Amino acid sequence: MRLFNSLSRKIEEFHPLDPSQTRIYSCGPTVYNDAHIGNLRAYVFTDTLRRTLNWKGRAVQHVINITDVGHMTSDQDEGEDKMELASQKMARDIWQIADHFTRAFKNDLLRLNILRPTLWSTATDHIHDMIAFARVLERAGATYELESGLYFDTTRVPDYGILSLTPQEGQTEGARVERVEGKRNPSDFAIWRKSSATAQRQMEWWSPWGPGAPGWHLECSVMSMKYLGTRFDIHTGGIDHREIHHCNEIAQNQAYTQQSHSGANWWMHNNFLIDRTGKMSKSKGEFLTLSSLVARGIHPLAFRLFALSTHYRSELEFSIDTLAGQLIRLKRLVGAVSALRRKVEPAAWMRVPAEIGFSSGASFSWPRSILERDLPAAGQTLLDHFERELIEDLMIPRALPLLDETLNHATLPPEAKLRILASMDLVLGLKLLTLQRSDLSLRPERAELSVTEVETLMTQRQQARRAKDFATADQVRNRLNAAGVELMDGQEPAWEWRPILE
RNA sequence: GGCCGGGUGGCGAAGUGGUCCAACGCAGAGGUCUGCAAAACCUUCAUUCGUGGGUUCAAAUCCCACCCCGGCCUCCA
User: What is the distance in angstroms between the CA of the first residue and the CA of the last residue of chain A?
Assistant: First the structure.
């Protein structure tokens, strides 16, 4: 299997350090707000990576962190932090804020059918680990203390910034954030931020440098090492982390281990989901969440399919129409699978798609062996092709058409098609075999009719049709159409909600 | 300002020298089915790859210039 490595900016043959288990660390969210759909793209990517490794027979140890320590808010209000700000806005304790948005985040992942990591690791559970780590950095002479905190001296490690390809001379200190007085080098960053004498933070801890909070980059070095060791296989994150956050993490790792190795063999970054006005940004205020899509009647898995339709290293242009198109596509896929199911007797293998959700990182060898047992040669060919796309840096956009190829195959028996699709879906996570078309029709929050009202009108229309009173039947249909309901006479389901796209 | 990445049909998006003179999905068009409509299914849909030059037997794919877009420059997936 070949994966793009941001360290070399090349696709390289992947070999895990430990053949029995691949160790992955994924940078998680800061939980001061709902995740926007751009954030969520990162976890669809991570999940696809993990599922692909599992599909290829590798077990994974996957850690995702939760950043529940607030960091600075924005260019404007230096000194405030996002967690504190959210706390004030919502008039709630900062710990409640963290808890609330952590739950919301995990719920989003659940709705997107993102497999849970082997371990969730939360920053505030590791403050003392961070202090211990920082002291090692201090003893190694990699830090210096200022009025505002303990800083990392980036000249103390070899090749600082290799990940970014950005020459230090090109950096303009303070281009976006106010400069810190006394820093030795523009690229130096905070290891520990001291609380100001005047304002106590809700979240602060006593440390060798006084009360304060850890620098943002520290937690990832500390938690990845704690659970995955000083060397592990893959570290993932959004592309915005490539230039700063991950460079700083690497610097910390190097200073801590006294080695030039970055810590992870592979650094992988997903590109942004963008809209016409630029990247989706939490700090700019308005942004789309998964819940806001659901409120419009768009199923979360339509977003998953949307995210899968583009290679993870390409920018993905957001449009609600394209998203709605993916919902249609998903409905057609699910409908086609249901049609096949009606031709096939229930069988033991059908339990597999639902049971995969229990996985916390195990290889998919067992489920695949059940699904792919004694497939006809044509079926094996399709899966071979599927695999060729996966192992070339996760070419999911090229793998997706194989779903249609399988469904439309001229000679494969229905049961074989279903098992092939089930195996592919172990990677794609679209719930193709467990979902009904009706599951994908969500009532928009703003819909003017209730389900009961729709059902009543549907009955009226059917009675009118049976009585050949087509004027009444059409009248009811128009009424339903106007209320955002699509009719599909003689189908199962007989009607669906139309998503709201304006 | 510095650095990185990108501009492919109405939209999203594969493809980075010939076996693809451009996959796939959505939309559109025609058809089957249907009281009508929808759903479903079938067929169809870029002589062209931001613009202008160049290299080559051969370029969307390489080179140069220009235009436009996105990212990073210590909050961000």
Answer: 42
d(CA A318, CA A143) in angstroms, rounded, equals 42
Same domain for A164 and A99: yes
Cβ A328 to strand B below 7 Å: yes
Q: Tell me: do A227 and A342 sit in the same domain.
A: no
* Residue A73 confidence class, pLDDT cut points 50, 70, 90: very low
What is the residue range of A102's domain?
Answer: 14-275
Q: Is residue A47 part of a domain?
A: yes
Residue A250 lies in a domain: yes
Per-residue model confidence as pLDDT tens digits over A361-385: 999 999 999 999 999 999 999 999 9
Q: Whole-number Å distance, CA A12 to C1' B13? A: 24
Q: 3-state SS string over A46-80?
A: HHHHHHHHHHCCCCEEEEEEEECCCCECCCCCCCC
Phi, psi angle pair for A213, to nearest 5°? -140, 150
Coil, strand or helix at A237 = strand
Model pLDDT for residues A93-130, shown as the tens digit of each residue: 788 888 999 999 999 999 999 999 999 999 999 999 99
* Residue where a domain stops, chosen among A407, A435, A463: A435
Given pLDDT bands bounded at 50, 70 and 90, which one contains residue A282? low
**Is A283 within the bounds of a domain?**
no
**Same structural domain, A41 and A177:** yes
pLDDT tens-digit series, residues A126-149: 999 999 999 999 999 999 999 889
Q: What percent of chain A has pLDDT over 90?
A: 76
- Main-chain phi, psi angles of A232, to 5 degrees: -140, -175
Q: How far is the CA of A361 from the C1' of B14 (A)?
A: 30
Q: Do A117 and A266 reside in the same domain of the chain? A: yes
| A379 and A268 co-located in one domain | no
Q: Which residue is nearest to nucleotide B27 (CA to C1')?
A: A325
Query: Residue A496 — φ and ψ, nearest 5°?
Result: -145, 155
**Residue A358 in domain:** yes
Strand B at less than 7 A from CB of A279:
yes
Do residue A421 and residue A457 come from a single domain? Answer: no
Q: Are A408 and A474 found together in one domain? A: no
In strand B, the nucleotides that come within 7 Å of a protein beta carbon are: 1-6, 11-15, 23-27, 34-42, 69-77
Q: Is the pLDDT of residue A151 over 70?
A: yes
Question: Does any strand B atom come closer than 7 Å to the Cβ of A405?
Answer: no
Quick one: pLDDT at residue A276?
66
Q: Interface pTM (ipTM) of the complex?
A: 0.94
Strand B within 7 A of A167 CB: yes
